[in-house]
Request: fold
Amino acid sequence: RIMYPLIIFVVMLSIAAFLFSNYVLPVANLKFYSLLFDVRSQRPEIIIKPGIFYNGIDNYSIRVSSKNKKNNMLYNVMIYDHSNLRGNTSTLIADSGKLALSPNKDFLLIELYHGKKYEELVENPQQWTKTFPHQYQMFDEQKAKIALSGFTFTRSDESLFKEHYRMLNIVQLSKTEDSLRSEYEKFKQSYKLTVCQQVFFRNSYNDTTNKLKDTLHISFKQILARFSKSEQQQIIEMALTTARNQQAYIQTTADEDESKKSWIVKHQIEFHQKFTLAFACLVLFFIGAPLGAIIRRGGLGMPVVVSVLFFILYYILSLTGEKFAKELVLPAWQGIWLSSAILFPIGILLTYNAMTDSNLIPIQKWINAIYSFIDRLKKHRS
Reply:
């Protein structure tokens, strides 16, 4: 009777877990993965190392010989300006300078001292063999700013990620899977027609009449001998080229077929996992709850240890089943429900043991044997 309220509570908990995985988790995944994408897309902070060209700013390449970390002063600064898309036609060289970002990180503020600017006035960048006029400027101090892109954190449109299987509930997953299966069938039919309409399959594919039996029994070598050596070489080369092309096409199609099946399986896995998450609450309850009544030695610690071991077993079986499903070794539903199918009967037997005080699964004997083994080891060491 003590188990009945707990069973009702766990059933309600399982229903709540299912509702969470079906309605809350897809939205949380959408928020999380869109944010993760934006974080990964954001450019890192500008870090210029001495002696190395820094190309993290579009159309600019910056190099310094040394840095003073106390006052952020840079020495022997060289800046290549590629903003005109004409190569290294504009170069800034300065004895020292400072670089800083604007408060909103939209601009790079440059302050250079005692330098010179060299710029080629190229009218037509295609005519590299000609000579062009150039400008040569010297300055004691010069300030400039460079527009930056990608350094400010911007959020992407979440609708770009809504079609991913992690962002769908069971109804959406079911509809998406049907669409993917329909596309996959069209893909297979297209491949079949393409292969069968090749030269060496065309007759057998289109011919619906009764085929005549070959009574001549002429070998390929006999047919090839009717041609000259140059023609034989051409025929063999054409055959090899055709075979290689078909092999490459078949390999590409096989890879695409594997990718399409894998994508369908991932939707199936996500569909079943929404149920297994809720069902896992029941499975682990029917395993963990009876252990306290069955294991009478070791106090509270031993039932907890055994429960943790069962949880680890459940976790390993879940990962193994999911891996088998993703690698197309098992159907998706078999791989995802593998852990529950193995441990749920064990949980029922343990619960029956605890409620009827029977000995179907002699866990207490196993625990006593473990304790006896530990005691023997202690005596042997002493």
In short: The chain has three domains: 60-147, 168-206+219-260, 268-381. The CA atoms of residues 65 and 346 lie 70 Å apart.
